[in-house]
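Q: Sequence in, structure out?
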Amino acid sequence: MFQKVLIANRGEIACRVARTLAGMGIASVGVYHHADRRSAHVSAVDEAVEITGDTPVAAHLDAQQIIGIAKERGAEAIHPGYGFLSENAGFAEAVQAAGLTFIGPSPESIRLMGDKIESRKFAEENGVPVAPSVLPTGDMDAFLAEASSIGFPLLVKASAGGGGKGMSIVREASELADKANTASAEAERYFSDGRIYAERYVERPRHIEVQVFGDGRGEVIHLFERECSIQRRFQKIVEEAPAANLDPDLRDEICAAAVRLAKAANYANAGTVEFILAPDGAFYFLEMNTRLQVEHPVTEMITGLDLVEMQLRVAAGEGLSVAQTDVTIDGHAIECRICAEDPENDFLPETGRVLRLRAPRGDTVRFENGLTEGQPVTADFDPMLAKLVVHGDDRTDAIDRAIGALVHTLLLGVVTNIDYLARVLDHSACREGALHTGFVEEHAASLATAQPDEDVQDAVLIAALLDDPAFRMQLDDCPEPYASIGGWRN
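A: Exactly. Output:
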């Protein structure tokens, strides 16, 4: 096993990885940009090293700088977390070339599954269902003609995309050319790869993904599925495991397809195979994420497994620590992504400063975050601030616990979606499991909140502060310079 690991990430995922490393007795090295110097992950690691770049994101994407720090500090391996360099095949190759271990799949697997066009071909060749689609040929006119022949609606997507960039729903033939050209331009801007493809768009689809683990020697297991259907702008905000109201036979079929694909790719380490599930029960391969997912804690909660520890053991050559028959589902888990964004203003990102943070507590609650009071929230990084994860005996219990935990989460100083997430979970359609990727848009009116009375809002905030012991202590303390000069002033 490794003696020291560098975490090439920041915020809550860096804290998460550091926690498992500490539990395994492995020393950790963290990296941070000056703008992030107050982040909790800086103090969560054993050694923290500042990285530089034209922007904070550029610093985190500087592969050679990060590899250099790993070698300088004596780390034997690098854990990429998610985002940044986690699905960069060139980075994985550079890590290996430097004599270090990349805690993730092989560069070949990243390259194969990271290209949405090639991965779709690979999935189809290995008997995994793929929606009717048209792939690019370099001739836009031919692409448009073939796409039109599939029928509408269509989903136009970037081959190298992610996070909803370079993606558009086309409902009429008259929209196709403009939206295809726009998607291609956006893909070129964000990913330096303008290739796009089109597939039949499934109305009211569910987004189901399967957590897989491979040892790179032919053995692959699944850790069941997650439901990720509640999204805004094609990005997830609520995830749960297992999926709501999923027929057991269909679950087995979807999980088997995910394992079949990963085995064909001789996959090593953690990965997620994502599917679109149609209302009629048909499912189609969407993509494979060759890394740990943001939503991995819900899988940990229902299986009792530590996915980061499993990643480390596979990367160290120990193989899989469990067999498929050992993996069972216990209860239900829900994750809410707490973001600095305004749900009342089209979920636009918000900035500010963390003035007060009070996390919910409980044996069934995890509050994954990398925040400290006084920390600025800027536009430099993704707006996700924290993840609230709860476990319940069943789905209803998990929803109730999640709402209760959200109500007891206090984060002042920046606008967040905390109250909105509670309304989503308490919505009758969510409680019934009537989920699909258009849930937020369909229920926008009933999920909106009326503007609160400012006097009532001020009273509630004051009451919350007065209920805080640390705040009351500050009120009772005698301020300087009077504390120093003593009681004679009276």
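Residues 452-490 form one domain.
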